[in-house]
Amino acid sequence: MQSHTLPGGTRILLTGAPGQVGGELLKSLQPLGEVIAPPRTALDLANPASIREAIRAIQPRWIVNPAAYTAVDKAESEPALAYAINAEAIKVMAAEAKTLGAAVIHFSTDYVFDGTAAHPYTETDATAPQSVYGASKLAGEQALTNSGAAHMIIRTSWVYGATGKNFLLTILKLARERDTLRIVADQHGAPTWSRDLARMTAHVIAHCEAAYAHESGIIPASLTGLYHATGAGETTWHGFASEAVRLLAEREPATRFATIQPISTAEYPTPARRPANSRLNCNKLARTFGWTMPPWHDSLREVLAGLEPPAKP
What we know:
This protein is an alpha/beta fold. It has a domain at about 10-165 and about 190-230 and about 280-295: Rossmann fold, CATH 3.40.50. Helices cover about 40% and strands about 15% of the residues. It is built from 9 helices and 12 strands. The strands form 4 sheets. The protein has a 6-stranded parallel sheet, sandwiched between helices. It is globular and about 60 Å long.
């Protein structure tokens, strides 16, 4: 990654620092300037006044927003809260950014699509969310797009990391406890390591500052808009789980792990509908910023190599 320092005294406001992506961004953005990551008590995305006060007090040059309401199934019964955090908060954030002349990098999701396409989705494909979560995230995208603030929206999918609550860590835990795991095998996408997203974000900000800082708005109009960023390649949830357990077994040959059995989406009903196709075409990111996301299986291997084995009883 290119190494650049932003203009003296530059502040980057980071939301959601305790989260998977936020925690990695907190580290990746440090070389670029002063990163300020307010706790929820000081910046509550469900409270518009809190957002305004925090942004006006911090006066950031960049606002990086990975925070979101991400309880996909719970959103079906809490639509008001999902929209407050995923849409209304972004509208407020964007308005403040425009007033300040700050730039916003906002993270979104593959759930804005209906998942029926036969190809990896591009940024120009029609959206059609099938869940409250997806619809609320799309509303946030639209609020930012229509705000007039300099911005980039990063859509991603299947995010995991070495900390927090995510599919990978759940599978690794259950694989030690059970004989069999039944995992959906007809939903296709690309696992995305939170650290890869953070590294990409730092690269994009550094690129904009190096090439366009002399222009008004930090991000020129030609770069404002949507980008897709996921791990390279594709798999299914079953394939992801199987590869994770296989790599774990290589490290711990004496340990007996669960057998991973494929099932259909119909065999694992959930309150919110999942896209059958979550694949995102990331060519625009590579074309614009010269950044290619690593293959998902390479990142998975790196994550597993860094995990400490559980303590023996």
